[in-house]
């Protein structure tokens, strides 16, 4: 029988913390922020049945729980430092804990981000991570900083995660190899931390966010916060490799209003085009220009010929459309 404290000790306590002054084991963790840097804090919860299917692979779940949090730091241009993990578990299952913690720590180590504390209780499976990062003062990529005339850029590709979800929900048929490939985008997103850091440190971008609820909804947050509008070239949106093989109507729908993409959407002055392409290459992340920020409020979608498109799509909302 694994007790609450054995579980924490065996699966979530590692040798001496490197970044934290004090890590797992006391009432609080102690962190010593780098002098002169600002602290970036974000939290994201994954709930069984809502963010992942019952029986989801534990290792992938460990990865995704941290990935979605790292993605929020990436969206601000912040460098990850530490995180806390709050878990509700239906049972203390050794296999599940070994898988979950290995997926979690593999990604944490890849980003030099340290687990410093958390909370563990019994209940329906629920995973909540709070992440801490650092950013140079004045460099954060805020949602309220887009300016008319900016280009709109997207990292990586969009829509494969939504395609996998559609297949799981029997909304469409995908052959096994395609589903396997698309499903990895849903289960194991890659947070664009290096790209976000480059955009912020070199002041290449004005505004940014990560696309978790679908581009149309998330870009809308930048437009509202920045009091601007945008024209989006829907046919320029980079579809994931599996979605790219699907009919145009589906490609448009899932790139514009997918979900679980965890790519960055950012706006930047024209003058920075070359430097942004170089930052993409440097960080191993594709970057694609997909539209521009306008003074006129509202989001206008156009096709590859500049003709208006009315797709009637909206972002993910847990209480309206989710
Ligand atoms: N219960 C809450 N109390 C206070 N602030 C909240 C609460 N829920 C969300 N927020 C804040 O509202 C804003 C939008 O939250 P949201 O969870 O949609 O973030 P996001 O980055 O757009 O999406 P994601 O959760 O997929 O990362 C964030 O600033 C978040 O910190
Ligand atoms: C079983 C299952 N059903 C649906 C989805 C899709 N999904 C759930 S929440 C969300 C938006 C981001 O959430 P939040 O804003 O809470 O971070 C998306 C796209 C999934 N991943 N698994
Ligand atoms: Mg976000």
From TrEMBL:
Binding-site positions, Mg(2+) 2: 44, 72
Start and end residues of each PurM-like C-terminal domain: 147-302
UniProt KW Electron transport keyword: no
Residues involved in substrate binding: 51, 260, 316
Pathways per UniProt: Cofactor biosynthesis; thiamine diphosphate biosynthesis; thiamine diphosphate from thiamine phosphate: step 1/1
Positions in coiled-coil regions: none
Name of this protein: Thiamine-monophosphate kinase
Source species: Massilia horti
Name of the gene encoding the protein in the UniProt record: thiL
């Amino acid at each position: 029988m694994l007790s609450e404290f054995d579980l924490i000790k065996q699966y979530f306590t590692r040798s001496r913390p490197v970044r934290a002054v004090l890590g797992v084991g006391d009432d609080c963790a102690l962190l010593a922020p780098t002098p002169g840097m600002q602290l970036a804090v974000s939290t994201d919860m994954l709930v069984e049945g809502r963010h992942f299917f019952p029986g989801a692979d534990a290792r992938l779940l460990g990865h995704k729980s941290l990935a979605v949090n790292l993605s929020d730091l990436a969206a601000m241009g912040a460098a990850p430092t530490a995180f806390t993990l709050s878990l509700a578990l239906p049972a203390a299952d050794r296999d599940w804990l070994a898988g979950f913690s290995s997926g979690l720590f593999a990604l944490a180590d890849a980003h030099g981000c340290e687990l410093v504390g958390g909370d563990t209780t019994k209940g329906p499976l629920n995973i909540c991570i709070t992440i801490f990062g650092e950013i140079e003062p004045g460099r954060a990529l805020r949602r309220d900083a887009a300016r008319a005339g900016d280009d709109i850029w997207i990292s990586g590709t969009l829509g494969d995660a939504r395609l996998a979800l559609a297949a799981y929900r029997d909304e469409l048929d995908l052959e096994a190899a395609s589903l396997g490939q698309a499903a990895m985008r849903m289960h194991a997103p890659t947070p664009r931390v290096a790209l976000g850091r480059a955009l912020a440190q070199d002041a290449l971008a004005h505004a940014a966010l990560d696309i978790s609820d679908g581009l149309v909804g998330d870009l809308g947050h930048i437009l509202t916060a920045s009091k601007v509008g945008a024209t989006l070239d829907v046919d320029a949106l980079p579809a994931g490799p599996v979605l790219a093989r699907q009919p145009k109507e589906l490609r448009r729908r899932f790139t514009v209003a997918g979900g679980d993409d965890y790519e960055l959407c950012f706006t930047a002055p024209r003058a920075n085009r070359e430097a942004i392409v170089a930052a993409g290459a440097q960080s191993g992340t594709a970057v694609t220009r997909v539209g521009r920020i306008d003074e006129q409020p509202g989001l206008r979608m156009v096709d590859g010929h500049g003709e208006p498109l009315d797709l009637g799509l909206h972002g993910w909302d847990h209480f309206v459309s989710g």
